[in-house]
Design a protein that fits this description.
Layout lengths: L10 E4 L6 E7 L3 H10 L10 H9 L3 E9 L2 E12 L6 E5 L10 H17 L2 E6 L8 H10 L2 E2 L8 E6 L4 H6 L3 H13 L2 E4 L4 H18 L9 H13 L3 E8 L2 E11 L2 E9 L8 H15 L4 E3 L16 H8 L4 E4 L4 E4 L2 H22 L5
Parallel strand pairs: 5-6, 12-13
Antiparallel strand pairs: 1-2, 2-3, 3-4, 4-5, 6-15, 7-15, 8-13, 8-14, 9-10, 10-11, 11-12
Amino acid sequence: MAHETSGTSPETTPGRATGAYGLREVTGADQQEWDAWLAASPGGGHALQSHQWGKFKKEQGWQPLRLLLEKDGEVAGAGQFLLRSTFPIPGKVMYASKGPWLPWDDTEAVEAFFEEATRIARREGAHTLKIEPEVYDEREDVKKMLGGIGFEKARYDLNFDATILMDLDQPEDELMANMSGKTTRYNVRLAGRKGVEVREPEDFDWAFEKFYEWLGDMAEQKEGYDLKRPPEYYHRMMSLLNEVDQGHFFFAFHEGQPLSVVYVFVFGNKMWYMQGASDRENRKLKPTYVLQWEVMRWAKSQGITYYDMVGIPKKENRDESDPYYGVYKFKLGFGGEVVDFIGCMDLPVRPRLAAMWYRLEPLYYRAYLKLKKSIFY
């Protein structure tokens, strides 16, 4: 496994201690060090909070900023923020994609974290502190606490806030038994009987080219699905995560012919289903079903116990009119738990500028997409 190293011990900027907690900014930490701290935080972190993700987004114009919450010298929480100018609105947005990871039951800890994070945001010239914690939407206590700090619901959720979680910490026969028998379990077994095999290709570039070819086909066919990133973005992101074993392609093959692909993120004991695509032919072999099953089996062999299938319609849209309804039913068939997170929350650090940015956001995103052929975040 490759690691980006600084060649020196990580530098830290002490923060102000609030009660039993202290927050410090970490600079110079390498991939192993930051990821170990993140994995030790409550909930175990997310791939989009990893050091390698920060390195990738830095290449895209974002400035990573990493904060550790500590209590008695031990890690109590962690958050990687990404900063970027919002010109022509003066200042920056400071965004924690799928973070931070804090002890949400501890009001003192959460308030200490954001008191210092807000001070740092002002120092960095940020007008908006944007978070995306994986807190269940049903946690009214946490939403009330964040509201008391000053957070408001953001205009947009930047990543999916609704998903299906699979508990892989159970025997394979129990996982199979929890599947929908009439479709999912039957199709997994059917694909196996037809000779469909699953493996991770050694040639990354071949895997990417096939994946992106199918992704383009899917964008042409599927209502509501659009490629808003250039291929260079996907290739660089996937190759960087592949370098540190945090990204993996898996393909379903039949008699040597590739039929279907998934790309997963891995961090600690967690895995996320980020992208999937298939050849338009040979769907009768049901490769997507056995592909998911074999990826789960692989994950279990790696000690992964948490599988986030990522991306289902919001609860108010879970009906056949939603373009993702079929994907939702497919994922649901594997027997996981439907979960809704609270999504993105904004803290106006400089209220006047934050209000200007909020009003400008829709126009800004459209203009950025038109000019850059990509998404701002």
